[in-house]
Design goal:
Mean pLDDT: 90
Distance between the termini: 11 Å
Strand content: under 5%
Shape: elongated
Largest sheet: none
Low-confidence stretches: none
Radius of gyration: 20 Å
Order of helices and strands: HHHHH
Structural class: mainly alpha
Number of helices: 5
Helix content: over 70%
């Protein structure tokens, strides 16, 4: 999966790039308006924060897809290939579990608080909150894929 460039990953990369571009443009515009024209765009800071949340979620999902998540492999690198493969299965199962639990609880969270309005934009908070179940859902799928690859490696079909 690491080498393939599917449409979901390309879409996530594009959305992340658009989000980061929007953040950069909005911050530049807000600074110019504030310090040169002594005005601002109402809701500009909130819009920037929402774009940052989405960019972060997309980046986290892509990191899982590419097996670039946080891992300390100092000790596992000293083990045999077979033991490393078993640990990889456990690692992917833990990542699946974490993403699955967060997915379920984030939906409950949105149901309880998503209708509250953002102060400046006047949008429901669900607009920003929806990024959590989307990111966790993608993380779950990517972790499941990594787990399948790791199980294949344990069974001797390929190396992780």
């Amino acid at each position: 999966m690491k080498g393939e460039r599917n449409w979901v990953a390309r879409s996530l990369e594009l959305l992340m790039q658009v989000s980061l571009g929007a953040i950069l443009a909005m911050i530049f515009l807000l600074v110019v308006l504030r310090y040169i024209f002594h005005t601002t765009i109402i809701g500009g800071n909130e819009a920037t924060q929402v774009a940052f949340v989405f960019a972060s979620i997309f980046a986290a999902a892509l990191a899982l897809r590419n097996d670039e998540h946080i891992a300390v492999r100092f000790f596992t690198e000293k083990l045999s290939r077979e033991k490393q493969n078993v640990i990889a299965v456990v690692r992917w199962l833990l990542l699946m579990s974490i993403n699955g639990v967060l997915l379920v609880y984030s939906i409950v969270w949105i149901r309880q608080t998503g209708s509250f309005l953002m102060p400046a934009l006047g949008l429901g908070q669900w607009v920003a909150q929806i990024s959590v179940p989307v990111g966790c859902g993608l993380g779950f799928v990517y972790s499941a894929s990594g787990c399948v690859s790791a199980i294949s490696a344990v069974l001797g079909r390929k190396r992780v």
